[in-house]
């Protein structure tokens, strides 16, 4: 039984994915996919690499994800699954690369600046 182990990141979310040949069960932090991500959009996002490579239902996925929000976690899982599929079969790279599923989204939250309310929002100016 071959286990493929990869990690994916997005914002402050980190996902560790363990892919094994199986019948398509996806378990995230001990819960099934629909229990962890109730939104169909996030469920689609997680299964997107399987849909692109036409391998949906061929692998069991066990995920440990930590940090960030639910969208960042879903995108971190998506990246880790895509990397694992490329590790299993390098030909999957051709299907995943055009949709940039193998690229880590490097956008992070901009830091708050001193003397301002937020990163770019300043305090309201008062003339008098």
- What order do the helices and strands follow? EEEEHHEHH
> How many beta-strand runs?
5
CATH class: Alpha Beta
State the helix count. 4
Uncertain stretches of 5 or more adjacent residues: none
The major beta sheet can be summarized as: 5 strands, mixed
Radius of gyration: 18 Å
What is the overall pLDDT average?
95
Range of helix content: 25-40%
Shape verdict: elongated
Beta-strand share of residues = 15-25%
**What is the terminal-to-terminal distance?**
74 Å
| Strand neighbour order, sheet with most strands | 1-2-5-3-4
Number of domains: 1
CATH architecture: 2-Layer Sandwich
CATH topology: Ribosomal Protein S5, domain 2
From the helix content, strand content and strand pairing, which structural class follows?
alpha+beta
Produce the secondary structure layout.
Blueprint: E1 4-10, E2 13-21, E3 26-28, E4 31-32, H1 33-36, H2 40-53, E5 59-66, H3 70-88, H4 93-96
Parallel strand pairs: 3-5
Antiparallel strand pairs: 1-2, 2-5, 3-4
